[in-house]
Design brief:
- The complex is a heterodimer.
- Chain A is an alpha/beta fold.
- Chain A has four domains: 102 residues, no CATH class; 163 residues, Rossmann fold; 154 residues, Rossmann fold, CATH 3.40.50; 58 residues, no CATH class.
- Chain A is built from twelve helices and 38 strands.
- In chain A, the strands form nine sheets. A nine-stranded mixed β-sheet of chain A has the order 21-20-22-23-28-27-26-24-25. A six-stranded mixed β-sheet of chain A has the order 8-7-4-9-11-37, with helices on both faces.
- Chain A is elongated and about 145 Å long.
- The C terminus of chain A is likely disordered.
- By secondary structure, chain B is an alpha/beta fold.
- Helix content of chain B is 41%, strand content 21%.
- A six-stranded mixed β-sheet of chain B has the order 5-4-3-6-7-10, sandwiched between helices. In chain B, strands 1-2 form a two-stranded antiparallel sheet.
- In chain B, a hairpin with a 3-residue loop joins strand 4 and strand 5.
- Chain B is globular, with a radius of gyration of 20 Å.
- Classes of the chains: A alpha/beta, B alpha/beta.
- Chains A and B meet through strand 2, helix 2, helix 3 and helix 12 of A and strand 8, strand 9 and helix 10 of B.
Chain lengths: 607, 313
């Protein structure tokens, strides 16, 4: 037996009062003239034995009453007897991830989990502390009514959430309450991907409820992406579907862009499909890949965004070299670039303006002039020492490219560029705002890049994606995920055109899946794509043992019987409050004391 | 002829209520003892008239004013015709009874458990006065013996009306001895009435049973009808004090410290036991015995005492 308020055990000392009163000879000041003293004396003599026994019994009952009061005030809890349950810190972890919105037996699974959670909360009393923790990390604490209300209002989270983190947080909450009863209860669909890692709850008992039955079949769009992000205006949409269970090996899809269907078709599950397009729309456009609806609607569509624009126009300087001239001609021929004045392609010493693709001059004597021109254009790099000797280049699409002649690129004080490729650990191609600088002349004597197969596509991407227009970003996020918006962004534009202002210091992705555009004033400067994590579509469930194995703790149980699960919630080691029992005993003792003090012994004697 | 001062006494303010059934303390506060005795007897006799007792009186004794409920057969129509007064003729049995009233005036009698009640002695004196008045009205000779630790007063039996006032004055004589020596009082009473008569003892009986046992048997052997009225305060029958106290005997140095809550049941049992012992003892001796508490209307003990009288010719 233990006590919730042991300080009240000090009252036990008061039990000495009746004992002292009984043992000590009391001083009686009241004197009464009474003619029939002889009767009084005779009464005392005749009933001496009875009065003595009565006094002893009364003293024992009074001491017992004080002891019971002290014990009841100390709020004992024990294994024997008692009613109700000990004050319990109970955290209810409700898995409201996207997978729980699946329709099972005609109703969303989350409804069943909510109903079980309500039943559990109704069994709590005012001495318990309750928390509702959902998979999206939201915590609601309060009395029974508050938590019931929170359960009613808990919506399906359109993503995976983080159940291990949520359980860890629940354990911390329960531990902080320091109540004699502690319990974490988890209501989950047991989805295997929702428990990607183990979690340790220590000494806090945990009981998980997982509905019986197998996971329903499901098909989902797990990939929908525009490549590249900027279409000028050609581009591709890459998509992939997954499927489990009967009928999950193929899916009929529809690709839409800007509200217009780009393509329809049927594809095998777990294989990628590519849809090429050159839409006539311009600017940022939302797109989606959808499949036929099934029991889990939340993953039947996936979203992407793309920027559509005209091909950049290029002013080609003769100092760029013949290989570059040939490549640009090929790009012009394929429509990916046009001849014009938007982007300069020239040797650094001959460049006029930015944006520009700049190469090292083929004549070493022009290096000084090139550096002066770089300074004038505001490019924070300078050509340094000349390096001769063949070395391999490293970078995107740079496989097999060698460099025989290069100049060391030395950053100036205003460094703000990205290294695109390196040679011998040193920057070889760097890119920054409105420029790309190559530290070698694009001639075979300087590097094999202009004669490699990847050169033309690489050049096209540089001209179209990096130099051809204002850079925009596409952020692919899970619902509610935190992100850092690009500098200068002022708001997030929803599908309906409404702009949601945000605090750039702490921004979270919207909870609803879809395409949102980053706004800088009236201009769209990027897109936020909110999609559920692809693994959330895999509804396959863990076995009881597998789930129990992922939750480490002293007392972890996984139950499929809701009644047993509810009963376990407040068991707390089968200890119960003994206060009511003690109060009943106290009433009995007081009643016995009253009975004996008044007429008990007399009646007993007569019978 | 009746004493005019008695017949002229005003009825108690309670109107139609019979005085013998009123609260004793309230009644005693309304007048002197002889007046109260008169009211009590009047009420008592009214009650008797309403009951169909046979042979109550056979010879005319006196007149009294008509009271509602009186039998019209006893109306004196001549007085009504002559003086326009409604008078009732009262009759009495012809008797030569001699009665002795023995009153315990020891200190234990001068006690009450509540200021709202008469002391046992005051109650007994009112009862003695009423009894004497009743007997004298029936032309019985009534004597009085008062005693405590000695004989305080001895008044020989007389049947004249004026003797009632002498008896009342005797009741007011000093008293308050620390013990009750009843044997001498009973012996004196026997000597007073000589031939077989009636002896009524009024006492709280706070003495040893053997003190009265022998004298009473002696009285019975001499042919006297004996009645004993034990006067008790209600607080003596059942303890009413609360808490713990030292109870001091009023007649001796005896002291008992008790908690009332602890002994009240035992005390009540003991008193009942004592009363039963007295009843057994007196019953064995052929003595009428009753317990009267001081909150009992005077009519009740008067009827009990009168029952002793009825057993005589």
């Amino acid at each position: 037996m233990s006590f919730l308020a042991p300080i009240w055990l000090l009252l036990v000392g008061a039990a000495a009062v009746p004992l002292l009163l009984h043992l000590l000879k009391r001083r009686i000041d009241l004197r009464i003239d009474f003619p029939a003293v002889r009767y009084l004396l005779r009464a005392k003599q005749d009933h001496r034995q009875r009065l003595r026994v009565q006094n002893l019994i009364l003293m024992a009952l009074r001491i017992m009453a004080i002891l019971l009061i002290a014990l009841a005030a100390a709020r004992p809890i024990g294994w024997l007897g008692g009613t109700g349950h000990v004050p319990t810190a109970l955290a209810i972890v409700l898995d409201n991830s996207l997978s729980t919105s699946v329709i099972v037996d005609g109703a969303p699974l989350i409804e069943r989990l909510r109903e079980e959670a309500r039943g559990l909360v109704r069994g709590a009393n005012s001495s318990d502390r309750l928390w509702l923790v959902t998979a999206d990390g939201r915590v609601v604490s309060g009395d029974r009514g508050t938590v019931l209300d929170a359960i009613d209002r808990s919506d399906v989270f359109p993503g995976r959430g983080d159940l291990p983190a949520v359980v860890t947080r629940a354990a911390a909450l329960v531990r902080s309450a320091q109540l004699p009863g502690e319990r974490i209860t988890v209501l989950t669909d047991g989805q295997a991907t929702a428990w990607p890692r183990g979690v340790d709850v220590g000494n806090i008992p945990l009981s998980a409820y997982m509905p019986s039955g197998e996971a329903p079949p499901n098909r989902a769009v797990v990939l929908a992406a525009a490549r590249p992000d900027r279409w000028t205006p050609n581009g591709t949409v890459v998509l992939r579907t997954n499927g489990w269970g009967p009928g999950g090996d193929s899916a009929t899809y529809r690709v839409a862009l800007g509200g217009r269907t780009l393509a329809r078709g049927t594809m095998r599950a777990n294989e990628e499909a590519i849809v090429r397009a050159a839409p006539t729309e311009r600017g940022w456009q939302p797109g989606s890949v959808e499949i036929a609806p099934d029991e889990l609607r939340g993953d039947d569509a996936r979203y992407f965004a793309v920027w559509l624009g005209n091909p950049p126009s290029v002013r080609l300087d003769a100092t760029a070299g013949s290989f570059v001239q040939t490549a640009v001609s090929a790009l012009v021929g394929s429509g990916r670039v046009a001849l014009g004045a938007d982007v300069d392609v020239a040797s650094a010493d001959a460049a006029i303006k930015l944006p520009a693709l700049l190469t090292a001059p083929s004549d070493p004597v022009r290096i000084g002039a090139a550096n002066r021109q770089l300074e004038r254009l505001g490019v924070p790099w300078r050509f340094g020492a000349r390096r001769a000797g063949e070395s391999a280049a490293h970078g995107d699409r740079m496989e097999g490219v060698t460099v025989a002649l290069r100049y060391v690129l030395e950053p100036s004080e205003r460094l703000g560029a990205d290294t695109v490729a390196t040679v011998a650990g040193e920057p070889w191609i760097v890119g920054g705002e409105r420029y790309v600088l190559i530290a070698s002349p694009l001639i075979p004597a300087g590097t094999s890049l202009p004669i490699s197969a990847a050169f033309v596509p690489w050049l096209g991407d540089v001209l179209a994606q990096q130099l051809g227009g204002e850079a925009g970003r596409v952020l692919a996020l899970a619902p509610g995920a935190a992100f850092r918006p690009p500098h200068g962004t002022t708001g997030l534009e929803a599908n309906d055109g409404q702009v949601l202002p945000f605090d750039p210091a702490s921004v979270r992705a919207p909870m609803r899946q879809g395409v949102y555009f980053l706004r800088r004033g009236p201009t769209r400067v990027g897109a936020v794509i909110v999609n559920a994590e692809p693994e959330e579509s895999d509804l396959r469930r863990l076995s009881d043992a597998a789930l129990a194995a992922r939750i480490r703790g002293r007392d972890v149980s996984v139950l499929r019987d809701a009644g047993a699960w509810r009963a376990a919630a407040f068991a707390a080691g089968n200890r119960r409050p003994l206060g009511t029992l003690l109060l009943v005993l106290l009433l009995l003792v007081v009643a016995a004391e009253t009975f004996i003090a008044r007429s008990g012994l007399r009646r007993i004697r007569r019978t | 002829m009746t004493d005019p001062s008695i017949t002229a006494a005003a009825p108690p303010p309670a109107g139609p209520t019979r005085a013998d059934l009123l609260d004793p303390a309230h009644l005693a506060s309304l007048g002197r003892i002889e007046i109260v005795a008169r009211w009590v007897v009047e009420g008592f006799l009214t009650g008797l008239h309403r009951s169909p007792r046979k042979g109550f009186s056979v010879e005319f004794a006196e007149h009294r004013p008509y009271m509602p409920g009186d039998d019209l057969r006893y109306m004196d129509w001549k007085i009504l015709a002559r003086a326009d007064r409604w008078m009732i003729k009262q009759f009495e049995e012809e008797t030569n009874l001699r009665a002795a009233l023995v009153l315990d005036v020891s200190k234990s009698m001068d006690w009450t458990g509540s200021p709202d009640r008469l002391t046992k002695l005051s109650y007994a004196e009112h009862l003695i006065a009423a009894l004497a008045h009743l007997l004298i009205r029936q032309k019985d000779a009534v004597g009085l013996v008062r005693f405590d630790d000695e004989l305080k007063s001895v008044l020989s039996p007389r049947a004249r009306s004026v003797h009632f006032y002498r008896l009342v004055r005797t009741l007011a004589e000093p008293h308050g001895g620390k013990a009750a020596r009843i044997s001498e009082a009973l012996f004196r009473a026997e000597r007073m009435i000589r031939r077989p008569g009636m002896i009524i003892v009024v006492s709280d009986l706070l003495f040893e049973p053997k003190d009265i046992d022998g004298p009473v048997k002696s009285l019975r052997a001499a042919g006297h009808n004996v009645g004993v009225l034990q006067i008790m305060d209600p607080s003596e029958r059942a303890l009413t004090s609360a808490g713990e106290a030292i109870f001091c005997d009023t007649e001796s140095d005896l002291q008992v410290s008790v908690s009332v809550a602890d002994v009240e049941d035992a005390y009540r049992e003991t008193v009942e036991h004592v009363v039963e012992e007295w009843r057994t003892q007196f019953s064995g001796a052929g003595v009428e015995y009753d317990v009267v508490t001081t909150d009992t209307p005077f009519g009740v003990p008067l009827r009990k005492a009168f029952r002793v009288r009825e057993n005589l010719p």
